[in-house]
Amino acid sequence: METNNDDFIVVKAKENGVQVIGLTRGQDTKFHHTEKLDKGEVLIAQFTSHTSAVKIRGKAEVLTKHGKVESES
Ligand code: TRP
């Protein structure tokens, strides 16, 4: 699968039940995967030929090449 290996994000859950939702690339923008994280769990994810955007629900710390941002619940 085609990936841009530089373009990954780190998501650290600050509460239980944080959802990391992948949205499809292309004309239709739909959810294609939801990963659930509990407090303290970390997910490292890439943007791929299938994934153009990521939505995060719940309180989490998100690191990207653009810096650090916190989502809130
Ligand atoms: N099968 C998905 C893909 O290759 C896996 C994935 C990659 C993903 N990055 C993601 C799922 C971000 C959720 C969020 O695109």
TrEMBL record:
> Residue ranges of the Tryptophan RNA-binding attenuator protein domain?
5-72
Annotated GO biological processes are: DNA-templated transcription termination; regulation of DNA-templated transcription
The molecular function GO annotations come to: RNA binding
Keywords of this entry: RNA-binding, Transcription, Transcription regulation
Q: Which domain of life is it from?
A: Bacteria
Q: Which residues cross the membrane?
A: none
Q: State the family named in the UniProt similarity comment for this chain.
A: Belongs to the MtrB family.
The record's note on quaternary structure and interaction partners says: Oligomer of 11 identical subunits arranged in doughnut-like structure.
The protein depicted here goes by the name Transcription attenuation protein MtrB
Organism of origin: Paenibacillus crassostreae
